[in-house]
Amino acid sequence: MSALVAPSVLASDFANLQKEIEMINESQADYIHVDIMDGVFVPNISFGLPVTEAINRHAKKPLDVHLMIVNPDQYLSAFKNAGASVISVHLEACNHLHRTLQAIKELGCQAGVALNPHTSVELLKDVIKEIDMVIIMSVNPGFGGQKFIEQTYTKVRRLKEIIDEAGASTKIEIDGGVNLENAPKLVKAGADVLVAGSFVFNAKDPIATIAGLKKN
Predict the structure, then answer these.
(1) Catalytic: 35?
(2) What is this structure's pTM?
């Protein structure tokens, strides 16, 4: 099975956002990855609900919303209403992760958990069956265009073991520094979904670049 691809609109041209979303619609992408940053949980501010709603008005692919924010529980229903199909929260931002996952599912969305590079996948063992997708951050969150962290491969392999041991159907998504060189290694390690921002939107032919990532 080929990899699923989720272009990250954080790297898109915001002045031509509708055109960028239409490009993704025409491509082989499976999701549109939407990074929400609050300037508190991560040292950057991206965009919020109005832009997410605007993306959704033109999107023909499901929105994969990644909440890099404190107190994500306060905004779950708002992002569902803005068009999210998948809502991922950071383990590091949730005091009651199981409750948060249940709340996301009750909204009718798929529930995701994101892990920063320093956070162990072992912390997900007790809730892995409740998680539809785990985002492994392969860069430190907050900014696009960062260098891929090599330890990610080991982390993916271990998470895949945890998923298989539990008999779970959780997907593994990789976010940060993904390109055509490391994509096949990530898929071999157990990754299901590849997020790519700068690599797609800075390419001469973004649609061909997405197709190249899909071949893994």
Answers:
(1) yes
(2) 0.97
